[in-house]
């Protein structure tokens, strides 16, 4: 682990260090977390490290000012998506700059904001903070968002819940008050093998999977037709799709096994648990038909990701605060998901507003503009002055 070399590293210098850690979600994040801890130690910042279920994956919760509940939280995830199979023109884990654009994996999504959180510390420590500034650093946002679940439960257990939270996902520093939820499921289909010359002696798992996929496609069409429709989203309804499917072993054997994965992205007002129950009832006849071939046969559902939607009222104090600080009168809706719905569900009013463009996320040669980081630095200081200096 290399400690920070200076107490005055700016956002770009910190970003250069953060992107050098390959924190693809499959990897431990502990080397990056240890570097962040060194930065916090150098600035005498109180923090707590909290582990997840996997070795080497940690959350951090740092607090500037009084160590108590209330105040303002800034939150950023430190994991990123893979680079394998992408056509990068430069080393994805070395920050490079060209024409005001900073290139690296995670530069936009979302180590740029994390760097700004850390770079703000020396300035914020000079302010007479009457309320705390909380800094959340989470793992596994790119796959399950479970890091945020562990973090917020730890925060609640220690009675340190902030009054507001800003998640710095890339939004070009425009306030985002609503996003869709996401739920993903794997379905394992168990049939019975037989020689293909006598298919009635078996139970074809691929045929059953095909019928199940057809039902899911029909349900997706019903969402599009019947809604609910929520103005501001594109598309304005819950979407559902099958994205992965496999099965069978050889053509002359009735396939015994198949599996597929599907997802839906729910608008606020649609409930993930209710959709899941509706879907299972809809597929129940297929499950029952398979079970006629044996009790071991049927459809077996494994939920993989449950990300609740975000729906913050346009009249919420946090919205007007962000609009005032950023100079944006907008209060946008997006179809991608974030950790914000988890925090909101836990009782923490949360908004999404961060530097960079989501259009650059997950792509080869990911980049963020230096100007976006400069403006983010200003936003963080202004927010803290508005929320944490008043008695």
Defining key terms:
single chain; 391 residues; alpha/beta; 10 helices; 22% strand
Report on this structure.
A hairpin with a 6-residue loop joins strand 1 and strand 2. The chain has a six-stranded mixed β-sheet, sandwiched between helices. It has a four-stranded antiparallel β-sheet with strand order 10-11-9-12, with helices on one face. The chain starts with 10 loop residues before the first helix and ends with a helix. 33% of the residues lie in helices and 22% in strands. The model has no long low-confidence stretch (mean pLDDT 95). It has ten helices and 16 strands. Helix 6 runs antiparallel to helix 7. The chain is elongated, with a radius of gyration of 24 Å. The protein is α/β, with parallel strands linked by helices.
């Amino acid at each position: 682990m290399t400690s920070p070399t200076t107490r005055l590293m700016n956002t770009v210098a910190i970003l250069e260090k953060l992107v050098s850690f390959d924190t693809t979600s499959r990897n431990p994040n502990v080397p990056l977390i240890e570097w962040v801890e060194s930065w916090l130690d150098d600035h005498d910042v109180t923090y707590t490290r909290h582990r997840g279920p996997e070795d080497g994956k940690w959350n951090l919760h740092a607090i500037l000012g009084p160590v108590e509940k209330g105040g303002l939280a800034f939150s950023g995830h430190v994991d990123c998506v893979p680079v394998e199979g992408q056509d990068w023109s430069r080393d994805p884990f070395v920050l490079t700059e060209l024409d005001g654009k900073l290139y690296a994996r995670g530069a936009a999504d979302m180590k740029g904001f994390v760097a700004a959180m850390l770079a703000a510390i020396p300035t914020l420590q000079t302010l007479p903070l009457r309320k705390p500034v909380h800094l959340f650093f989470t793992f596994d946002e790119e796959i399950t968002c479970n890091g945020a679940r562990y973090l917020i439960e730890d925060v609640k257990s220690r009675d340190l819940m902030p009054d507001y939270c800003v998640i710095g996902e890339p939004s070009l520093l425009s306030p985002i008050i609503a996003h869709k939820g996401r739920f993903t499921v794997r379905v394992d289909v168990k049939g019975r093998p037989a020689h293909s010359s006598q298919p009635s002696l078996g139970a074809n798992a691929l045929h059953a999977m095909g019928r199940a996929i057809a039902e899911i496609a029909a349900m997706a069409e019903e969402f599009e037709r019947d809604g609910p429709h929520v103005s501001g989203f594109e598309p304005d309804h819950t979407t559902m799709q099958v994205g992965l499917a496999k099965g069978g072993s050889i053509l002359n054997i009735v396939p015994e096994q198949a599996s597929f994965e599907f997802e839906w992205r729910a608008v606020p007002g649609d409930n993930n648990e209710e959709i899941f129950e509706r879907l299972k009832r809809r597929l129940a006849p297929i499950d029952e038909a398979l079970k006629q071939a044996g009790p071991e046969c049927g459809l077996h559902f494994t939920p993989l990701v449950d990300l609740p939607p975000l729906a913050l009222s346009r009249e919420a104090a946090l919205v007007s605060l962000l609009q005032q600080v950023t100079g944006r009168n907008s209060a946008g809706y997006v179809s991608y998901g974030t950790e914000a719905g988890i925090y909101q569900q836990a009782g923490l009013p949360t908004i999404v507003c961060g530097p960079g463009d989501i259009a650059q996320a997950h792509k080869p040669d990911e980049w963020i503009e230096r100007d976006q980081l400069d403006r983010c630095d200003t936003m963080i200081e202004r927010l803290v002055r508005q929320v944490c200096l008043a008695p």
